[in-house]
Amino acid sequence: MKILKIVLSVYVLVCLLPLQGADELPKGFVYVRDIIPDIQVELRYFSDHNFVGDTITGYKANTLILTHQAAKALKKVQNELQQQNLCLLVYDGYRPQRAVNHFMSWAKNLNDTINKQEFYPDVEKRHLFREEYIATRSGHSRGSTVDLTIIDGNTNVPLDMGSPYDFFGKSSWVDHPNLTEIQKSNRALLQKVMLKHQFRNYPKEWWHFTLRWEPFPKTYFDFEVE
Q1: By the 8 A CB rule, do 225 and 59 touch?
Q2: Phi-psi region of 212 (alpha: psi -120 to 50; beta: other; left: phi over 0)
Q3: What is the Cα–Cα distance from 226 to 64, expressed in whole angstroms?
Q4: N or C: which end of the chain has fewer CB within 10 A?
């Protein structure tokens, strides 16, 4: 009888423990809308509006995921921009390694150029690796890198940054000289507010920022975005 009581007690204890759901994130990661409920998200790799022209492997929802530290820092950026009636629009955050593998496979198929005119009109597809537009590893897979822009708080229209998101060309370089004064000003605003809150930029992509002192600097994750 004593043994039966012990077994029943253990059973009850186990039943009361919280179950790990299928959608539970790895420790250290969060759903960004839990931290920033009003952030605008348009994950391009969950759509076909990207340089590949198709939904990318590993993206199963328009759900922005980042490390907890990156999400908290991004909230400070959002709060500051809102004081100017501006907001963030995020194109990509955490990116599974399987998505990067998809990019690599696509890049090897030189005949697949469905979206060349929009995203890489002046670059030969066979040179995308050499010119570092595509790599075998991405900082996004570490969870603290984000691609984003600024939008008008009233209209939700993105500010003019001088090139589209994910455009493979020199017009995407932060210091590209052939920009209007408005475009330069918009880029400078994005750079200033992101740097202030501890995000460093990749100079060849005005939209690409990584949190300083990121928590997983050498770990590339592969869980799906869902």
Answers
A1: yes
A2: beta
A3: 9
A4: N
pTM: 0.89
CA distance 109 to 41: 30
Supply φ then ψ for residue 186, to 5 degrees: -65, -40
Query: Could you give the CA distance from residue 184 to residue 54 in angstroms, rounded to a whole number?
Result: 31
The SS3 call for residue 20 is coil
- Catalytic residue positions? 205
DSSP H stretches of helix in 58-96 = 68-82
129-149 per-position pLDDT tens digit:
999 899 999 999 999 999 999
Burial class (CB in 10 A: 0-12, 13-18, 19+), 113: middle
- What is the Cα–Cα distance from 14 to 201, expressed in whole angstroms? 47
